[in-house]
Structures are given as C-alpha cells and as structure tokens.
Design a protein that fits this description.
Layout (H helix, E strand, L loop, with lengths): L6 E6 L5 H9 L3 E6 L4 E3 L4 E3 L2 H8 L4 E2 L7 H9 L4 E5 L7 H4 L6 E5 L7 E2 L2 H7 L4 E8 L9 E8 L6 H24 L16 E2 L15 H10 L6 E5 L2 E11 L10 E5 L2 E5 L4 E8 L5 E3 H7 L2 H6 L1
Parallel strand pairs: 1-2, 1-6, 2-5, 6-7, 8-11
Antiparallel strand pairs: 3-4, 7-9, 9-10, 12-13, 13-16, 14-15, 15-16, 16-17
Helix pairs in contact: 1-6, 5-7
Length: 314
C-alpha cells in the first residue's frame, strides 16, 4: 500500500448500501470499481431499471460491473484486474465464492444489519422487529465462505423503538452501517490492523427472505404479534387483512386490551381512534389502512365510507 491509496472495490445493490458507498468515497480510499446486480425489470412497464448503487456510482463517474455471478473465470479475472486491496460488500445479493474472497489483499468486509449472530441471512431488519427484539445494530464483518459467519471487526448498537417500522429501522441502520465502515476505513488507512472477534455459536437465527404470503394477518394470533408484523412489513410487503368482508392493506396498527369472549376477527369497536379487532390475545387497533386501488387513509376516513362498521361494533 506504500506509495498509493487503498484500492477498494465496492459491491452493493439497494438503497441501504448507498451511504456505505459514499463513506468509501469520502474515506480517502480509492474506489476503483463498483459491482452491483444486473438491471432488473421494475414498475408497471417492467422496464429494465438500474439499482440505486449503480445510479450513485454512475453519478460519481465510477466504473460499474454487473456480472450475473462469479462462476466464470473471466468474471473473477476482471475483478482481479482492478488489483483491489479490499472489497466492501453491502447487501450485494450474491454469495461470494472462496476464489473471490481471496482476491483482495485484505480480503472482503461486509456491513450486515444485525448484531451477529442474532440474525444471519437476507432479512435481519424485519425479522428483528417480528421477534420483538429490544435492540438491533450493524456489524462490520470480515467475510468468510459461510453465510454471515465471519468474525466481527466493528459493531454499532441501537434500540428498537416501540413504534419502529421496517422502513425506519432500515434507514437508521443504513446510516449506522456507513458510520461503522467509515471508522474501519479510517483506522485501516492510518495503518491499524483491525482485530476480528469470532462470532458466538450460541443464539444463531436465520433471517429468511420476506415472502408476500407472510403479510396476511391471522387474528387467531396474539395482537402483539400482529402489531409487530404490521410494523415490520412497512413499507414492504405491507400487512393485509380481511375486515368484515373487505380485503385491506394495513399500514399502522397497535395492540390493545381485548374484550372477554370476543371471537378472533370480530370488530369490537370502531371510532375515530381506529377499528378494534379481537385477536387470540388482546385486540388489534387498525389506525391506517388502504382499500383496493386506493391510497393509504386513516381508519377514521375509512369509517366515513363504511358507517355500518360503527353500528356493527356498537
């Protein structure tokens, strides 16, 4: 590294990774290439769209590479041609084989949105909220061949608020991840060798990728579990429920005390405060909903269109 700056290849795809790319650019390291997923169909027209990381890289005038995988020798050789000292990986979307991990002189770092080993895998942010975790955070990890099994270099912790959504926690952890990465780069550029901390073998959970089928609310479950699902699935895939014969998307809800003897799914109250639905334990108050083809509205506005709900609950 003597006589030249730290050469960094950045690999990332969604919005979450953009602040980390900016942290690399601001660190004093030289970002020699940006790897991101190939353009995918998006929107109603299903036209090919660039990833947020690609858009940020092109705006900064950085070379962009978009291999489907690293199985081909030519793709690995292309990466090696950049002579990277370090590869920084943030929500890239590809599992890197050993041959790729071995290319950078300092290996590969990953910014992962959980306190490892609590949530390994694709959806740690939403799984933490679904599980009722009191705390989350980000780990800067030295990558190895296993899925999110590498030792931790730097950790940042943050409480999960009682009204935290998947979107709000995503944004906070994105910024926190960029902060942890910036520290790691600063210390490395200053000549320090970061000391990795091996992950514990205890408490490992796998954060499975989100599935739209999970978004359906089942009122035979406890209200607090449904509240967490509504918060975790905002802004995607958004919780859904059948409310007295109409299918609604549920954007905001709160677990409250129930009414003894009420059947799960029964509307037990309806007012400007919300629509209260009995659950196996407690009740779920719907606060913001969306009708088919409509926009997000308050429960009060929804009740204006369906006054019979107030009568049914009275």
């Amino acid at each position: 590294m003597v006589g030249r700056p730290l050469r960094v290849v950045f690999a990332g795809t969604p919005d979450f990774a953009v602040p980390c790319l900016e942290a690399c650019r601001a660190s004093g390291a030289e970002v020699v290439a940006v790897y991101t997923q190939p353009d995918r169909p998006a929107g109603r027209g299903r036209k090919l769209a660039a990833s947020p990381v690609k858009a940020a890289a092109l705006a900064a005038g950085l070379p962009v590479e978009q291999p489907e995988s690293f199985k081909a020798e030519a793709d690995r050789a292309r990466l090696a041609s950049y002579a990277p000292d370090l590869m920084v990986v943030v929500a890239y979307g590809l599992i890197l084989p050993r041959k790729v991990l071995a290319i950078p002189r300092l290996g590969c770092w990953n910014v992962h949105a959980s306190l490892l080993p609590r949530w390994r895998g694709a959806a740690p942010i939403q799984r933490a909220i679904l599980a009722g975790d009191a705390e989350s955070g980000v780990d800067l990890m030295q990558m190895e061949a296993g899925l999110d099994t590498g030792p931790v270099l730097i950790e940042r912790r943050t409480p999960i608020a009682h009204d935290e959504t998947g979107g709000s926690l995503h944004d906070r952890l994105s910024a926190l991840g960029a902060d942890a990465l910036a520290e790691g780069l600063r210390r490395t550029l200053a000549g320090e060798t970061l000391v990795p901390r091996p992950q514990s073998d205890d408490g490992v959970e796998y954060a499975h990728k989100l599935d739209k089928a999970e978004a359906k609310l089942d009122f035979a479950q406890p209200a607090i579990a449904l509240e967490r699902k509504v918060r975790a699935f905002d802004p995607w895939p958004v919780a859904e429920a059948d409310v007295t014969g109409e299918h609604l998307r549920i954007w905001a809800a709160r677990a409250i005390d129930g009414v003894p003897g009420a059947e799960p799914g029964q509307v037990i109250a309806a007012s400007r405060d919300g629509i209260d639905i009995a659950c196996a334990e407690g009740a779920l108050r719907l606060i913001a909903v969306q009708r088919a083809g409509g926009r997000r509205i308050s429960a009060a506005d929804y009740l204006n269109a369906r006054p019979e709900l107030k009568q049914a609950a009275s």
